[in-house]
């Protein structure tokens, strides 16, 4: 079956693509840490614009980035929608819904806006990292950077076997349909629920057994528990310059945010 | 010295299932052996003994004279390469190249040697051009070839394949047979567990039939045309033999098993 290419644009050519993955990981992660500590919406917007430009320069298609961004909605979207109504403060809008009264506060809207901007700034940075780096190089960079082997291997196995599992799920659902199974309309349809619960159970068992077989196959090729990796990354001056630039933009935003640096019409004031 | 010597091997799983009840067999160096037997005969359990994944509970397994036990298991795994039935179990890395390099890396070879071996193995199975691909973007047949390359890169003397033709389309089976032929020409000892009687007849020079955890018969390919033996083993005759088994004049002689044998017999009659 056909699967999405998670790093389909990693083969393009641009300064960010050519950057040493290890330096790139460090620079971008540092930037993400900085951007979540920014407290002014204008500076967060600047960070977002920075990554939008980076993505455009790297020639990553806009549609791809937007599709990636939609994955954030289930996580941050709910909070962003709720914040205006659950944060105490000065009411700016209210509506009577019979028994309950909902009111949005100025403080709530501000909190929601900050969260939205922070999420956008960090996710765009990560999208830039992920879309300009081959997955395997990203993993090698992480293990070169001394990220514990268990974590790197877990990431690798997750990506490798999520597709195998998706295939299995698709085959199972097709086989269910072939035997006349129709999804019930609601959560209280016990036959549907029982069937789906069994499917989840079977998936767990299969994954467990697959894990066993994969392990046996690894041992059979001489695996003794130690992860070896061959990496041929070479850092050159260009990488440091680019990382320095990313770091400088981050540091500049942080300095402006903390008032160490003041942006005036005439230029920069210290 | 035989490549593989197994004597009176017994193995019981933790749940009490006695999978092997006394298997004995010998494989000479450079042989092409098919291991036949119905489902549940103990084929997979036996294969896992060949490179020390399962260690003998009773009896012994010797690889080039060396007994397989806790001490020798790591060395034995360099001598015996195992290709598993489902390539998704075996090919786990993020790219084809990395997966083939996994075995050589575990062997602690130099970078230069690893690159050389990976290139050689990938070229042998015709997957060099796809070396940068992620395994989940490959077809089943391609994954199978990567799995074989991963074992080949360790340069084992003995290569064991579990159901190598299963789920492969005819083209894929053809490619696989060519790869096996290539291994044979390099002097490797090959053991193939299969249900494909026609492949066994065309390819093998030695046959081992097991049933219920014991060795039912070991010999040349003439065993494949032995009706009573095949029936006892719950197997079936190769297609060619099935055709000739309907003629009374072949009642008392060994049935032809391969297309070539059939053709030469038919030519006699047509003349």
Describe this structure in words.
The complex is a heterodimer of chains A (270) and B (271). Helices cover 67% and strands 7% of the residues of chain A. Chain A is mainly α and 270 residues long. Chain A has 2 domains: 1-146 and 236-270, no CATH class; 148-231, no CATH class. In chain A, helix 2 (21-37) packs antiparallel against helix 6 (106-132). The longest helix of chain A is centred in the last third of the chain and has 31 residues, at 190-220. The model of chain A has no long low-confidence stretch (mean pLDDT 87). In chain B, the strands form 2 sheets. A 6-stranded mixed β-sheet of chain B has the order 6-7-8-3-9-10, sandwiched between helices. Chain B folds into 2 domains: 4-236, 3-Layer(aba) Sandwich (Rossmann fold); 237-271, no CATH class. The relative contact order of chain B is 0.15. Chain B is globular, with a radius of gyration of 20 Å. Chain A binds chain B through residues 3, 5, 135-136, 139, 156-157, 159-161, 163-164, 210, 213-214, 216-224, 228-230, and chain B through 48, 51, 53, 74, 77-78, 81-82, 84, 86, 88-90, 92-95, 98, 101-103, 105-107, 111, 114, 134-137, 150-151, 154.
Termini Cα gap of chain A = 59 Å
Rg estimate of chain B, integer Å: 20 Å
Flag low-confidence runs of chain B: none
Apparent shape of chain A: flat
CATH H-level superfamily of the largest domain in chain B: P-loop containing nucleotide triphosphate hydrolases
SSE order of chain B? EEEHEEHEHHHHEHEHEEHHH
Strand order of the largest sheet of chain B: 6-7-8-3-9-10
- Tell me, what's the shape of chain B? globular
The main β sheet of chain B shows up as: 6 strands, mixed
């Amino acid at each position: 079956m056909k699967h999405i290419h998670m790093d389909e644009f990693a083969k393009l050519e641009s300064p960010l693509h050519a950057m040493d993955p290890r330096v790139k990981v460090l620079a971008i992660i540092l930037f993400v840490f900085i951007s979540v500590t920014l407290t002014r919406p204008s500076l967060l917007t600047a960070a977002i614009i920075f990554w939008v430009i980076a993505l455009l320069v790297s020639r990553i298609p806009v549609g791809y980035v937007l599709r990636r961004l939609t994955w954030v909605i289930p996580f941050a979207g709910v909070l962003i929608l709720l914040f205006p109504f659950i944060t105490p403060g000065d009411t700016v809008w209210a509506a009577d819904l019979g028994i309950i009264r909902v009111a949005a506060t100025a403080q709530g809207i501000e909190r929601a806006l900050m969260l939205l901007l922070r999420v956008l700034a960090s996710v765009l940075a990560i999208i830039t990292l992920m879309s300009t780096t081959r997955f395997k190089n990203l993993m090698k960079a992480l293990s070169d950077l001394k990220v514990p082997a268990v974590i790197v291997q877990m990431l690798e196995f997750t990506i490798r076997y999520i597709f195998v599992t998706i295939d299995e799920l698709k085959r199972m659902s097709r086989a269910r349909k072939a035997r006349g199974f129709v999804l019930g309309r609601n959560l209280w349809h016990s036959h549907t629920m029982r069937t789906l619960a069994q499917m989840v159970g079977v998936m767990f068992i299969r994954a467990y057994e697959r894990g066993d077989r994969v392990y046996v196959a690894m041992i059979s090729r001489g695996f003794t528990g130690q992860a070896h990796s061959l990496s041929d990354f070479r850092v050159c001056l260009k990488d440091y310059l680019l990382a320095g630039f990313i770091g400088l933009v981050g540091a500049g935003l942080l300095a402006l945010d903390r008032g160490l640096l003041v942006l005036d019409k005439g230029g920069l004031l210290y | 010295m035989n490549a593989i010597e197994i004597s009176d091997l017994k193995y019981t799983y933790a749940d009490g299932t006695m999978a092997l009840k006394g298997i004995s067999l010998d494989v000479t160096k450079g042989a092409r052996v098919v291991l036949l037997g119905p489902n549940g005969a103990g084929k997979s359990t036996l294969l896992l003994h060949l490179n020390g994944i399962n260690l003998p509970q009773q009896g012994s397994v010797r690889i080039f004279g060396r007994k397989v036990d806790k001490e020798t298991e790591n060395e034995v795994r360099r001598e015996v390469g195992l290709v598993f039935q489902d390539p998704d179990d075996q090919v786990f890395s993020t790219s084809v190249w990395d997966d083939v390099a996994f075995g050589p890396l575990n062997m602690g070879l130099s970078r230069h040697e690893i690159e050389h071996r990976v290139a050689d193995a990938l070229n042998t199975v015709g997957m060099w051009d796809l070396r940068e691909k992620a395994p989940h973007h490959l077809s089943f047949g391609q994954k199978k070839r990567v799995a074989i390359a991963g074992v080949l890169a360790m340069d084992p003397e003995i290569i064991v394949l579990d159901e190598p033709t299963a789920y492969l389309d005819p083209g894929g089976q053809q490619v696989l047979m060519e790869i096996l032929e290539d291994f044979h020409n390099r002097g490797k000892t090959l053991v193939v567990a299969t249900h494909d009687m026609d492949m066994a007849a065309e390819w093998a020079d030695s046959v081992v039939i097991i049933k219920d955890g014991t060795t039912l018969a070991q010999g040349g390919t003439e065993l494949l045309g032995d009706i009573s033996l095949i029936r006892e083993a719950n197997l079936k005759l190769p297609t060619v033999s099935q055709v000739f088994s309907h003629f009374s004049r072949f009642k008392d002689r060994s049935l032809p098993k391969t297309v070539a044998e059939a053709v030469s017999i038919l030519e006699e009659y047509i003349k």
